[in-house]
């Protein structure tokens, strides 16, 4: 009591502490996953391995990064977020640290491809969907945007630092740095990350009741595959997965992989083109957080339609913007495109939760897997176009058309938004564990 008045101390909801720890883990995972890009040439120089051989480890890493997500989400349901996150960081640390003693190329494939791929894949966007789905009912879109932006922030922080370490002290020092950094996050996860709000006897942020979740029956792999089987019987899943596959194709697969060589074809120095890509990452942080804020206020289907349409139009213009220098028109493209880079993630996460209920994070993991598959196809396809035609122009136009198609798929979701995502497929209640819930 103060001055005759009773004062109430408002405590910060523990969901914010969980989000902060998750942000740190995601920040590190993004940096750890990007490390091979600065080690390609040093490994080639020391061991004589072809860049194709070294790149194969990166390809395995990328594929596992996407395909691990739904299984990691199911493991989090089964064994808890904290245990899975800690295990993932240990895998990253082991994968990076063991490269210090490698002598054969298959060991690189095992360490950076498999171990680091599995570890970072467990800390991918499926991890984000699980955290926001359990801990937030209010501000869910905004928090999803902030956590998604951690990926771009991690790249911006780690790539320059690791590049300097490789240049001054060698790739082994960089690998050891990643190994130690991954382990350093484990105690933080153990200290502050909790699986459910009920573990602290509080409701989710924005909720009024404490919900004690039932432990899912069956194995994690079985539940992940069952969620895919049930979701695949629905129209919303294919519309979301199709749009997100195009999202991957038009970002990581095409621009992330081929922008620098395409700019070099027009006389731009690789360092200048790399600087433009860094600007994309910078604007991506702003765009993704803003998208999360909008997701809490605007129908996610309309947002997706708008994002994909604007991306498609920008890619159709891009071929005419390439030049030897970064003129103002190209800088405007970088600003515009960067804001839209992964702005699609918050509304996609929210829609998976809306259509598939408690299975939403696992289903989003499968939708994210389609993103990585789309990226892999586009990365290879654009390279083939360049080899056959001597220019990337057709690849840019094709990507623009695909993005416009993704906009149509998203608007199809809006047209049918009052239809249920899935009918009741079974009559045996015991067979519904981990299955897709009816949409709204």
From TrEMBL:
Keywords of the record: Membrane, Transmembrane, Transmembrane helix
Positions of transmembrane segments: 12-32, 52-72, 84-101, 107-129, 141-162, 174-191, 237-260, 272-294, 306-324, 330-351, 363-382, 394-416
Residue ranges annotated for the Major facilitator superfamily (MFS) profile domain, each copy included: 17-418
Subcellular location: Cell membrane
Gene Ontology cellular component list: plasma membrane
UniProt keyword annotation of Transmembrane helix present: yes
MF terms (GO), sorted A to Z: transmembrane transporter activity
Bilayer topology: Multi-pass membrane protein
Protein name: Predicted arabinose efflux permease, MFS family
Organism: Actinoplanes derwentensis
């Amino acid at each position: 009591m103060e001055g005759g008045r009773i004062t109430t101390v408002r405590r910060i909801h523990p969901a914010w502490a969980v989000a902060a720890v998750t942000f740190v883990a995601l920040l590190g995972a993004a940096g750890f996953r990007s490390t091979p890009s600065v080690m390609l040439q040093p490994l080639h120089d020391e061991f004589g391995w072809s860049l194709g051989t070294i790149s194969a480890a990166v390809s395995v890493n990328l594929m596992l990064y996407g395909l691990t997500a739904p299984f990691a989400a199911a493991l989090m349901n089964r064994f808890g977020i904290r245990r899975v996150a800690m295990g993932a960081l240990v895998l990253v640390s082991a994968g990076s640290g063991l490269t210090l003693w490698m002598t054969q190329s298959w060991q690189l494939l095992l360490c950076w491809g498999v171990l680091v791929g599995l570890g970072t894949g467990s800390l991918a966007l499926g991890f984000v969907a699980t955290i926001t789905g359990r801990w937030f009912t209010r501000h869910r879109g905004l928090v999803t945007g902030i956590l998604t932006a951690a990926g771009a922030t991690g790249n911006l922080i780690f790539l320059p630092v690791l590049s300097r370490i490789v240049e001054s002290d060698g790739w082994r020092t960089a690998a050891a740095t990643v190994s130690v950094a991954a382990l350093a996050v484990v105690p933080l996860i153990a200290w502050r990350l909790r699986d459910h709000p009920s573990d602290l006897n509080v409701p989710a942020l924005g909720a009024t009741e404490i919900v004690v979740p039932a432990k899912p029956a069956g194995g994690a792999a079985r539940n992940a595959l069952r969620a895919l089987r049930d979701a695949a019987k629905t129209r919303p899943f294919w519309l979301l997965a199709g749009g997100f596959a195009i999202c991957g194709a038009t970002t990581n697969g095409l621009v992330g992989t081929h922008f620098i060589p395409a700019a070099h074809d027009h006389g731009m120095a690789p360092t200048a083109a790399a600087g433009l890509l860094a600007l994309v990452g910078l604007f991506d942080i702003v765009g993704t957080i803003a998208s999360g804020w909008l997701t809490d206020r605007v129908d996610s289907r309309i947002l997706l339609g708008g994002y994909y349409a604007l991306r498609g139009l920008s890619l159709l213009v891009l071929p005419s913007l390439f030049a030897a220098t970064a003129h103002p028109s190209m800088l405007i493209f970088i600003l515009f495109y960067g804001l839209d880079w992964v702005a699609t993630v918050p509304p996609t996460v929210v829609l998976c939760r809306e259509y598939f209920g408690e299975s939403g994070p696992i289903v989003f993991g499968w939708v994210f897997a389609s993103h990585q598959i789309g990226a892999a196809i586009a990365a290879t396809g654009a390279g083939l176009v360049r080899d056959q035609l001597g220019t990337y122009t057709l690849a840019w136009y094709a990507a623009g058309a695909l993005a416009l198609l993704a906009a149509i798929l998203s608007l199809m979701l809006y047209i049918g938004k009052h239809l249920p995502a899935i009918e009741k497929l079974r009559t045996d209640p015991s067979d519904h564990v981990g299955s897709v819930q009816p949409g709204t």
